[in-house]
Design brief:
Largest sheet of chain B: none
Largest interface: A-B, 29 and 34 residues
Oligomer: heterodimer
Shape of chain B: globular
CATH topology of chain A: GMP Synthetase, Chain A, domain 3
Strand content of chain B: under 5%
Structural class of chain A: alpha+beta
Number of strands of chain A: 3
Helix content of chain A: 25-40%
Largest sheet of chain A: 3 strands, mixed
Chain lengths: 101, 411
């Protein structure tokens, strides 16, 4: 039985910051899900704010490394999806407030 | 997962000199502007020299550097032969200097400078086409890369023919060839490239999502058609074809502006930074250039036509480029020097990597300079034009300082 929770995975990913906007990926609403199996393998489902993002691969690598830092974690996979497309309503209120100027 | 662009990012040492020298040429252009008068003719050799200093030294140099980085982002494949950019830079830089010397001092130098520039651009266009062939994507931006490079080849061939004509080596109608050349390069390459990359960069930096692309698709088709009509109309001396080309291009640009308006309405990020200010100024200048162009057509006043071109080139094209420099250069520096440190130590945010005060000074001096000198052109006032040129010179100094600060950040 694995005692890693979805919250722990999201907390780990919240250390990853998008250098362009200055917010972490979780508060931006870019992390859609984290599926954890009984062997503590983690499958992160996420998106990016734009399809042409030149940091695409780096960001997914940072997410993978952040989750791998959780003690006892098994294999980590990061899947980038474009459906549903990200929009600002998915972000936390503080992000909306600050971005909105 | 899709192929990703960061795998193919060229090194900073390859791209940075394009931006550094491009901005140096911008500073030289604004310095040279201090010695010009608002009354001129396009046939004047000194004016042609200034136009090439600005368009080749600044606009093309920066666009080539940006393309080295952006083409893999857009096409999602690596460059066919990225190392050719090491050759393109000196060929374009030295070719531009020799051409300017040809325009200003010794016309016999023109074909030599023209040849160097021609070779640089042919290498650039062929490399872009080879990279394009590797990609299976067929988005609007990909199509604009293909079409704009085709027009670039036509533009440089006609330009070289003009250089030979001016040096007395070739018997051609320089006036008509000049129209074909200007339109192929400015409309076919620069404007089409801006249209294509706007669709990627503006929504990316403004976080605008969920918009239809109908207007920009129409704009793309109209501009490629309009440019072709003007180019061949000028080449074969058919005025009616040229005028229909002008009208179609203008309609295309209006559609492009409508698309930008739709994106602007969906903008999430309301931050009033140097990029946002530059975009607002650029599109304001483009709108004003269109109005001035129509007024010039109706009234036949040449000074208004000059002012329309001024707002198009210095107001729109230059602001689009410089505004994006404050986004692209910090990103490139960050990617090279700080990305490997993520997760290991604190890294700066991109907005911390450009000097905000110098950027602000650049923007206000430049925007004021464009407007004051533009007024000088419309009113044919030497005083206003020179005052505007002085503002532009000061703006260029701040841009030059900002660029050096950005490129040396974290060194």
């Amino acid at each position: 039985m694995c005692d890693i929770t979805k919250e722990m995975v999201f907390d780990a990913i919240s250390t990853v910051i998008d250098p362009e906007v200055g917010f972490n990926l979780v508060e931006m609403g870019l992390i859609y899900d984290a599926i954890i199996d009984e062997n503590c393998n983690v499958h992160v489902v996420m998106t990016l704010s734009t399809q042409g993002c030149p940091l695409h691969q780096m960001i997914t690598q940072w997410v993978k490394e952040a989750v791998e830092r959780i003690e006892g974690v098994g294999e980590v996979e990061v899947e980038v999806v474009w459906e549903p497309a990200w929009n600002i309503s998915m972000a936390d209120d503080n992000v909306k407030k600050i971005l909105g100027g | 997962m899709r192929a990703v662009s960061s795998d193919f990012a060229p090194p900073l040492k390859l791209i940075a000199p394009f931006f550094k020298y491009g901005v140096l040429f911008y500073l030289l252009s604004m310095t040279a502007l201090l010695f010009f008068s608002p009354q001129f003719s396009y046939a004047q050799m000194d004016v042609a020299g200034w136009v090439h200093l600005f368009l080749l030294g600044f606009v093309m140099m920066i666009i080539f550097g940006a393309m080295a980085q952006l083409i893999p982002v857009v096409l999602e494949v690596g460059h066919a032969v990225v190392d050719v950019y090491y050759i393109i830079l000196p060929l374009l830089g030295i070719g531009t200097v020799v051409m300017i010397a040809g325009f200003w001092l010794m016309p016999a130098l023109l074909p030599y400078g023209g040849l160097l520039v021609l070779v640089a651009m042919i290498i650039f266009a062929l490399e872009s086409i080879a990279t394009l062939k590797k990609s299976t994507l067929r988005t609007l931006t990909v199509k604009t890369v293909a079409w704009s490079n085709g027009y670039l080849l036509l533009g440089i061939l006609t330009g070289f023919a003009i250089a030979l004509g001016l040096a007395g080596e070739l018997s051609i109608d320089v006036g008509m060839m000049l129209k074909a050349h200007v339109y192929a390069v400015l409309g076919g390459y620069v404007v089409l490239t801006i249209i294509g990359f706007s669709l990627i960069l503006i929504p990316m930096f403004s976080l605008a999502h969920g918009f239809e692309e109908e207007y920009i698709n129409r704009a793309f088709k109209l501009v490629i058609t309009g440019v072709a009509l003007v180019f061949f109309g000028a080449l074969f001396g058919i005025e009616l074809v040229m005028w229909s080309g002008y009208l179609i291009t203008l309609t295309g640009v209006v559609f492009y502006m409508m698309q930008i308006y739709i994106i602007a309405k969906l903008t999430v990020r309301k931050e009033w930074d140097i990029w946002a200010k530059s975009m607002v100024f650029a599109f304001g200048a483009l709108g004003f250039a269109i109005v001035l162009g129509v007024v010039a057509f109706v009234t036949g006043k040449e000074s208004f036509l000059h002012a329309a071109v001024w707002y198009l080139v210095l107001g729109f094209i230059a602001s689009m480029i410089t505004g994006h420099l404050y986004k692209i250069v910090p990103f490139l520096v960050w990617f090279e020097r700080f990305a490997p440190l993520v997760g290991k130590e604190k890294v700066p945010m991109l907005h911390e990597m450009y000097p905000k005060e110098a950027a602000s000074m650049f923007f206000w001096f430049t925007a004021s300079g464009v407007i004051i000198a533009g007024t000088g052109m419309m009113a044919e006032s030497d005083l206003f034009f020179k005052a505007g040129a002085s503002f532009l010179f000061m703006g260029a100094v701040f841009l030059f300082l900002s660029m050096n600060r950005m490129l040396s950040y974290g060194k």
